[in-house]
Specification:
- The protein is α/β, with parallel strands linked by helices and 350 residues long.
- The protein has three domains: 100 residues, Arc Repressor Mutant, subunit A (Orthogonal Bundle), CATH 1.10.10; 122 residues, D-Maltodextrin-Binding Protein, domain 2 (3-Layer(aba) Sandwich), CATH 3.40.190.10; 98 residues, Periplasmic binding protein-like II (D-Maltodextrin-Binding Protein, domain 2, 3-Layer(aba) Sandwich), CATH 3.40.190.10.
- It is built from ten helices and 15 strands.
- It has a six-stranded mixed beta sheet, with helices on both faces. Strands 11-10-12-9-13 form a five-stranded mixed beta sheet, with helices on both faces. Strands 1-2 form a two-stranded antiparallel sheet.
- Helix 1 crosses helix 3, helix 1 packs across helix 4 and helix 5 crosses helix 10.
């Protein structure tokens, strides 16, 4: 653990005139109270006494010049200023933990680990498949590799904050300080129970779904809108199709396997995850799944990182049906304008 008595921060809260000096133990106490919901629970979490944690919060608020929590028994809630401050504190503490870990690695001569951040779908399919392929021929890392599974917006944040070297995420999204190394898209597929009446067809017409229960994504991505529109469109309000919303493609597949309904799934999941009793079929409506690989625009990536990015492109291009290069914007591409399979070496965006 980092030394909370030595490391201090100069912070200018809300454009105040004088800088404020804060100890890390105060920031830890603040983050713990927010996470645990009360001072008592935070004290147990940090192995400190309740009076010590209370005093650290009070001292921090006095130094900042604004209130962090609204005290409503039995729990406390963040004020608006406290919420904004927590966003910064979270990044600071995460960075310190990363620094502490790297410091220990440097002390024993370990090279910097390759750090990946990926969405659940791509992290469990594209990333694992590529690591498996590479490890059968070469070692893609020396001693350590980090893989964080995060929502799409947090993938970009991890890369921007320096907590990940490479991000693998669904698109579109706001890239900010990140750059798009490459992007691609492929059509989503329909997952059906293998004994379903439509499973014998080579392609599924959405008009044939009738009153079958459908499973859609409930996350905030554009894919949810595209899938929901495709599956639920053209139905009168009086005849709404039964549907289930889930945040996980794997959960959707397990529901299909259990015979609950049908689901549109991304092509990477359909390529890598094949549950028993589930079959995948193309549909007559193009619903593109867009994804990309991002890095920080101001940092130099290692040779191993570059090789991994190339390997992911090769795998997607060779193994995912209908995969084509995407637009630099990360927006849907008109299929008739799709480019060839060459790796887009000039596709990075500053």
């Amino acid at each position: 653990m980092y030394n909370a008595h030595i490391v201090r921060f100069a912070f200018n809260p809300l454009m105040a005139q004088c800088p404020t000096i804060m100890e890390i133990r105060q920031l830890e106490a603040f983050a713990a109270v927010y996470s645990a919901g009360s001072v008592t629970a935070a004290a147990r979490l940090l192995d400190r006494s309740q009076p010590v944690v209370s005093r650290q919060i009070q001292d921090l608020e006095q130094e900042l010049g604004f209130t962090l929590f609204t005290r409503t028994r039995p729990q406390v809630t963040l004020t608006e200023q406290g919420r904004q401050f927590y966003e910064e504190v979270h990044n600071v503490l995460a960075g310190l933990q990363q620094l502490d870990s790297r410091m220990r690695e440097i002390a024993v001569g370990q090279p910097r680990p390759l750090r990946l951040a990926a969405t659940a779908s791509l992290g469990s399919t594209l990333v694992t498949e590529v690591i498996g392929q590479l490890e059968r021929s070469i070692r893609i890392f020396e001693d350590k590799m980090n893989i964080d599974i995060l929502p799409p917006e947090l993938v970009a944040q991890a890369v921007a904050d320096g907590q990940a070297d490479i991000g693998i995420t669904s698109l579109p999204m706001e890239l900010g300080r990140c750059q798009l190394e490459w992007s691609g898209q492929a059509p989503c597929l329909m997952a059906l129970p293998w004994r379903h009446p439509l499973s014998g067809q080579s392609s599924i017409s959405l008009a044939e779904l009738g009153d079958y229960t459908v499973i859609t994504m409930s996350n905030k991505s554009g894919l949810r809108h595209r899938i929901s529109t495709a599956l639920l469109q053209n139905l009168p309000a009086s005849n709404m199709r039964r549907h289930i919303e889930t945040t996980s493609f794997l959960n959707a597949l397990m529901l299909v396997r259990a015979g609950v309904g049908l689901a549109l799934v991304d092509p990477f999941t359909a390529t890598s995850v094949m549950p028993d009793s589930v079959v995948f079929r193309p549909i007559d409506t193009h619903v593109p799944y867009m994804m990309g690989v991002i890095t920080h625009s101001g940092r130099v990536l290692s040779d191993g990182g570059r090789e991994f990015i190339q390997a992911m492109w090769d795998y997607a291009n060779q193994s995912v049906p209908g995969f084509v290069r995407g637009e630099l914007s990360g927006l849907p591409k008109v299929m008739s304008e799709s480019l060839g399979p060459d790796f887009p070496e000039d596709d990075s965006v500053a």
